[in-house]
Design a protein that fits this description.
Blueprint: H1 3-11, H2 13-58, H3 66-71, H4 77-86, E1 90-93, E2 96-99, H5 101-104, E3 109-117, E4 123-131, H6 133-145, H7 151-154
Antiparallel strand pairs: 1-2, 3-4
Helix pairs in contact: 1-2
Length: 169
Amino acid sequence: MTPEKLQEALLNPDMLIKLLMNLKEEREKTKALENEVVIKNQQIMEMEQKASYYDLVLNCKDLLSTTVIAKDYGWTAKDLNKYLSKAKVQFKQGGVWLLYQKYAKKGYTSTRTYNYSDKDGTEHMKVHTYWTQKGRLFIYDLLKNKGILPLMERGSRRAPKRFKMKVMN
């Protein structure tokens, strides 16, 4: 504050009151901004933890069976396959679940071939479809958009008695 302003403030109490009110407002704004910074920093830390988790999970090369993903929802693999079929995500051909072209090149699934022998010793091959972590996240988002959450997010570890097969296009 310049000496002239200081002299004016001392001679004019209204001017001094106005200056003090401005100072008070600035301090309140500063305090509010400091609180906002603390909150934002906390949110950033939480998001960084989630981002690290997602990076770790999505970069995982392990595959998951449909059964494993279905159990997250208290469903069977048959239930989940049926839902995904009605949602036009996958179809069954030759006993193997395959993704529709719209999803086929997104890296959601991978197939594995298994050899087995029947009772008389004849060798056969069977193909199974497995989901990647990226595919698991896709299923999570698909179901969440329809209001279907994993058991863990429902606040209960109990499986639902029965889910309704609702697919909205």
